[in-house]
Design a protein that fits this description.
alpha+beta, single chain, 2 domains, 15 strands, 15-stranded mixed sheet, Endonuclease, Chain A
Length: 395
């Protein structure tokens, strides 16, 4: 059925982009070729060298008469200097913050509902979807090697789903910020003609009609797996249904491999997620931790044919709170390319967590792991997501 976000549609061209080294040149090139409009959404927009290149491309587009829109999360981009925003606005770029953080505003549960998706749409013809923020790959703690991440470049019928989604969110945010003049009319139609031969779907998560779409897409693919599940995720803290699906897949003979963050970036989540290792390892799931650099990827390949690339982590923040977006691709060529990239990353920079060694963890580490897990569960209850359904998911 067309017109329903999340359905696989044929005729697309989906290109895999590995980290910012491939993503930003492709994005800037597409912006420089824009003729009608540009929509760029991100969680973080950093004014480093990469951010400046993107900003300059947006300003060049305005000078050509292109309607240019930048939507940033109000928390993730709260450190962006006012002079950078003023420069963009002065050049004619339309800039909005999604749920901007304001000094002195009391904490509210809804403030955790962030814009975490990373999407760019150029002329309703080309889309970029993935996990890459507007920030340099080398902008990492302790100056470790470049951040490890993925995005995709999309052309074809899938634009009929992606383009309206970004326009709709921009329109709602513009109305909320009393920027009605920035709502472009008439609406431009996406260029959704066939551009390739790949089947793909655009899958969103929001708090309206798509609350569990990404999680359900993962679970459907995992439950149908027959040979291999290769899942790479930066922040992995799944609920019981997700963990059970992985363990059941391993029990029926599927090789289940998790590539997870090995470096400590967020201390609480780092230790809390490791409280899940014991049951996963006992259930036959392989766990490999990536140590070469900071891993920011949110991707998976199943049975060498189904693949997904996007912004959604497998944790409560992504699965229960934030606006997220993934592209699912059902194509052996694309899946094989992503799988090869992940296996190479595992060979170059990951270490397998062996069950026998995990059982011999020092007691200090065990205390940190279970302490982190307890705090994480408590926080989920404090923010109001501790009902029966969600307790089941994070138990």
């Amino acid at each position: 059925m067309r017109g329903m976000v999340g359905c696989l549609v044929s005729g697309n061209r989906v290109d895999l982009l590995r980290s910012g080294k491939e993503y930003f040149p492709a994005l800037v090139s597409a912006i420089d070729a824009a003729a009608r409009d540009i929509f760029l959404e991100c969680y973080i927009f950093d004014p480093d060298e990469t951010g400046q290149k993107v900003a300059e491309a947006l300003k060049r587009a305005v000078r050509r008469g292109v309607a240019t829109h930048l939507l940033m999360d109000g928390f993730g981009s709260k450190e962006l200097p006012a002079e950078v925003i003023d420069d963009l606005l002065g050049a004619g770029v339309r800039v909005l913050h999604y749920r901007r953080e304001l000094p002195g505003v009391r904490f509210r549960r809804h403030r955790l509902r962030r814009l975490h998706r990373k999407i760019a749409v150029i002329d309703g013809r080309i889309a970029f979807v993935g996990g890459i923020n507007v920030i340099d790959d080398l902008h990492t703690p302790d100056h470790v090697p470049p951040r490890f991440d993925y995005a995709v470049r999309v052309e074809g019928p899938l634009l009929a789903d992606i383009y309206p989604a970004v326009r709709r969110l921009w329109t709602r945010t513009a109305w909320a910020r009393f920027r009605q003049a920035w709502i472009v009319r008439p609406r431009l139609r996406p260029v959704a003609a066939a551009a390739g031969n790949q089947r793909a779907a655009f899958v969103m998560r929001d708090n309206l009609g798509h609350r569990r779409d990404i999680e359900e897409a993962y679970l459907a693919a995992i439950n149908g797996a027959r040979e291999e599940i290769l899942l790479a995720n930066a922040y992995f803290f799944p609920g019981v249904n997700f963990r059970r699906a992985l363990i059941q897949a391993a029990a029926r003979g599927v090789r289940v491999v998790l590539l997870l963050q090995g470096r400590v970036e967020y201390v609480l989540l780092h230790y809390a997620s490791r409280a899940l290792y014991g049951s996963l390892l006992a259930g036959g799931v392989e766990i490999h931790e990536y140590h070469k650099s900071f891993m920011h990827a949110k991707v998976a390949v199943i049975d060498g044919r189904w693949a997904t690339v996007g912004s959604s982590n497998i944790d409560p923040f992504s699965l229960l709170l934030s606006r997220e977006a993934n592209v699912v691709v059902e194509d052996a060529g694309f899946a094989g390319q992503l799988r090869s990239s992940l296996l190479q990353a595992m060979a170059d920079g990951a270490r397998q967590v062996l069950p026998e060694r995990w059982k011999q963890l020092p007691w200090v580490t065990r205390m940190a792991v279970w302490g982190g897990y307890g705090i994480a569960r408590l926080l989920m209850g404090v923010v109001g997501y501790g009902g029966d359904e969600n307790r089941e998911r994070i138990a």
